[in-house]
């Protein structure tokens, strides 16, 4: 891969992780949700990811926040602690 072909997602912490964890399984399993939150809050490209999710009106976890058509889904983020929100909102 050439340097000019690199995109933000090439640096994402979720590389090589089953992406179903960031969608269907996220709120179905509290352990999965907590694990995904931990992956996201430590991701070096979290802000780029969330921006992409919002701009493209995506659904699923983007930048540590579960979005529904690009908007924060309060019900699917209700398990987050204040600490996690402080981190994911730093973008």
Summarize the SSE layout with pairings.
Layout: H1 30-41, H2 46-55, E1 60-62, E2 65-68, E3 71-72, H3 82-88
Antiparallel strand pairs: 1-2, 2-3
What would your notes on this structure say?
It is a single chain. The protein is an alpha+beta fold. It has one domain (14-88). Helices cover 32% and strands 10% of the residues. It contains three helices and three strands. The chain has helices spanning 30-41, 46-55, 82-88, and strands at residues 60-62, 65-68, 71-72. A three-stranded antiparallel sheet has the order 1-2-3. The radius of gyration is 13 Å and the shape is globular. The termini are far apart.
Helix fraction, binned, reads: 25-40%
Q: Main sheet?
A: 3 strands, antiparallel
Outline the low-pLDDT stretches. none
Termini Cα gap: 28 Å
Task: Report the sheet-strand fraction.
Answer: 5-15%
Radius of gyration: 13 Å
List the strand order in the largest sheet.
Answer: 1-2-3
Q: How many beta-strand elements?
A: 3
* Quaternary structure of the protein: single chain
